[in-house]
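>> received
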Amino acid sequence: MATPTNTRFAVAVHVLTYLAASAAVGRTTPVSSDELAGSTDVNPVHVRKVLGPLRTAGLVRSRPGAHGGWELDAEPGAVNLAQVWQVLQGDDPVLGIHGPNPACPVGASIQGVLTDLDRRVAKAVLAELEGISLSDVLDDSGFDPADYAGLLP
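>> returned
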């Protein structure tokens, strides 16, 4: 199986789930980018790049400073994964469409076919993700507050 080149959505779901779990166990302090990076096994800068648009969308909030960090800014049941996808993916192609040679008979006609296919795939992805909330992800991960006591500072 090919390795995905864009992991922003997966990192976002992971981080949002971590923030939801932290709140669910009663954590009252923000979670640092370093802590989130440790859980996701990506660079803290990448975590912040993923969280920035989610903050703009009102899904998370940040507190600056030495004791700052990130917190969920929405109820987990009110956040569906389609919202997260749209914030991070926007209207970008899902399939990574290339620019074919218009002088080639196949290249001249394939672009419209691929663009239409991409729109249909994007629509199907959104439809699937609309039915999955952040609470569902937390439940599906087997969340048990006793297992997450380590999230408390």
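>> Residues 95 and 117 are 9 Å apart (CA to CA).
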